[in-house]
Write a structure and sequence with these properties.
heterodimer; A: alpha/beta; 6-stranded mixed sheet; 10 helices; 38% helix; B: 308 residues; alpha/beta; Rossmann fold; 2 domains; 8-stranded mixed sheet; 3-stranded antiparallel sheet; 31% helix; globular
Chain lengths: 261, 308
């Protein structure tokens, strides 16, 4: 395992979010260190996507705060800085991989433009360089560079997902949020994508928060695991520890309901 | 004697003096309260160059898409002493131009002209005159779609946010696509510009040939979109920059031909097919510019006093 730096990259303190009377996230605390992969597992409706949206700056929490350690300005409270600043952070310092590639890709423009969009958003204005970067990242996610000018809708599901990842990595983020990145893919494609993700995460030393209901995905990718149920964290610890020796009854249920191959 | 009469008639055709407006209309059709409201929007638009100011657009006696936005802006700023010129695709005598000019002659009785230099107010669709504009003139553009980001971002809420944060990377994505697919920036009209280094603006469907004329123009430039009820403006001497890439700089159209009528090689040319065999000729799209050049050339070749 790689050495972690001493100060955390992302911290959530007493984070709660309510939709009316319904509490989606209840008093959650977490810390994520550079290069670390945190898995959040739980059944549908357990609040994991809400938590992810709060962490990623998409949804202001009802209570608590999210602290992020920026490259140049030290630690900032995500919901205290201006929206413009948060947007800039969200396209330079972190990435977001959606469950459905359609939410994360721009369907009407080519793969190259999809990858280059973040670069142009932060001010790149040299076509040759943008295209070069796009080529490079398509290669890294194992997409044939000859398809750089094709529309994403002509890509297979797995390729779309890989394109989405390339699009997020192009600004060299330090943190990636992933919402069920493999859920819509068939098993063999899933395996390949997971392998690729694991490689990229370790090579680029990028931290990740992965929300999934698939324990196999969690076991493969995550260093650390948080188990959520009804808006609360019921158990957390090292992935192998949580999955092999679950303490909470709910975690035991989850771990035992995985089909054994 | 005969010649001078014809000349006079021609002159009348090109230039009409002020008359009494038709009874029953308020000056320039719109009521005073509406004009005041539009002027307030214009003032705000001038104060924030390139920013789209909403206004309470009225129903006008012509369909959307025919210049309802431009005509309302013109009505709001028109004064009794103004001299109005209306062009459509550069020409003074196309349907749209003739109708709008006649509309203001009937409802406001203002003087009209076809000469760019004589006009104080020019309403235009799709062109900026070739004759350089001067300080004190007002250009009014008819705008079909004011939002430059519309085709890339359908949500108005999102586009407003993008404008507020000057987040215009999306527009470059469009240009990137052009180059990736066609090898060059193929956008040839309504070419996106950044006004005063801040707001992204659609210059209305003028050819990109005219974009350089927007930059630091001495005239006040007002843009009215009737259907979408937006007004925006470029004040005099304001910087207007066309979007591009470092390695694919902004370029304007050029022709291998020059105008068949006046011989100009520096104006925007229309291509006309003149027979059934595909023969074509190129003429200036700016009819007034072309006519003046022809007149100047014939005056040179037949100096006055000599029998022709």
């Amino acid at each position: 395992m790689m050495p972690f730096q001493s100060s955390p990259l992302l911290v959530a303190e007493n984070l709660s979010h309510r939709f009316g009377d319904f509490t989606a996230c209840d008093n959650i605390n977490l810390q994520l260190y550079p290069g670390e992969v945190l898995g959040i597992v739980g059944e549908s409706g357990s609040g994991k996507s809400t938590l992810l949206n709060c962490l990623a700056g998409h949804l202001a929490p009802s209570a608590g705060q999210v602290l992020f350690s920026t490259r140049d300005e030290g630690v900032v409270d995500l919901y205290r800085i201006s929206e413009a600043r948060r947007r800039l952070l969200s396209r330079t310092d972190w990435g977001f991989v959606h469950q459905s590639a359609r939410d994360g890709l721009r369907a009407k423009v080519s793969a190259g433009a999809n990858v280059g969009e973040r670069l142009m958003a932060v001010g790149a204005r040299n076509y040759g360089q943008i295209r070069g970067e796009a080529m490079h990242w398509l290669e890294r996610v194992e997409i044939d560079t000859a398809r750089i000018d094709d529309l994403p809708r002509n890509f297979s599901g797995g390729m779309q997902q890989r394109l989405q990842i390339a699009r997020n990595l192009v600004t060299k983020p330090r943190l990636i949020f992933m919402d069920e990145p493999t859920a819509s893919l068939d098993v063999s494609v899933q395996a390949r994508l997971l392998d690729l993700l694991r490689q990229l995460v370790s090579q680029l030393h990028v931290a990740a928060v992965i929300v999934t209901h698939d324990l196999a995905v969690a076991r493969l990718l995550a260093h650390r695991l948080m188990v959520m149920r009804q808006g609360q964290v019921v158990e957390q610890g090292l992935t192998d520890q949580v999955l092999d020796d679950p303490q909470h009854p709910y975690t035991q249920l989850l771990a035992s309901s995985v089909l054994q191959a | 004697m005969m010649e001078s009469v014809i000349e006079q008639q021609q002159q009348q055709q090109y230039q009409q003096a002020a008359v009494e407006p038709e009874a029953g209309y308020n000056f320039a059709f719109l009521d005073e309260q509406t004009k005041r409201m539009i002027r307030r929007s214009i003032l705000k638009a001038v104060a924030i160059p390139g920013y789209q100011v909403p206004f309470g657009g009225r129903e006008m006696p012509l369909p959307y898409g025919w210049g309802t936005g431009g005509i309302q802006v013109t009505a709001a700023v028109l004064g009794r002493d103004d001299v109005l010129k209306v062009i459509d695709q550069g020409s003074d005598d196309t349907t749209n131009a003739v109708n709008i000019r006649r509309f203001f002659r009937r409802t406001a009785g203002v003087a009209t002209t076809e000469r760019t230099a004589d006009a104080t107010l020019i309403q235009t669709r799709h062109r900026i005159p070739e004759t350089p504009l001067s300080s004190g003139q007002i250009m009014i553009y008819q705008v079909p779609v004011p939002e430059p980001l519309r085709w890339l971002e359908p949500s108005e809420q999102q586009t407003r946010k993008l404008h507020a944060m000057a987040d215009y990377g999306l527009m470059s994505v469009g240009l990137y696509e052009d180059i990736a697919r066609l090898g060059k920036i193929a956008t040839s009209y309504d070419y996106p510009v950044v006004v005063n280094n801040r707001y992204m603006m659609r210059p209305s469907p003028i050819p990109k040939f005219d974009n350089p004329k927007l930059d630091r123009s001495p005239a006040l430039q007002l843009f009215g979109a009737g259907r979408e009820k937006r007004i925006y403006a470029v004040p005099p001497y304001t910087s207007v920059k066309s979007l591009d890439f470092e390695d694919y700089p902004f370029e304007i159209e050029s022709w291998e031909h020059s105008c068949s009528l006046c011989g100009s090689d520096a104006s925007f040319l229309d291509e006309l097919i003149v027979d059934d065999h595909g023969a074509r000729m190129y003429v200036c799209s700016d009819s007034d510019y072309c006519r003046q050049r022809v007149a100047a050339q014939s005056a040179q070749s037949t100096p006055s006093g000599e029998p022709s």
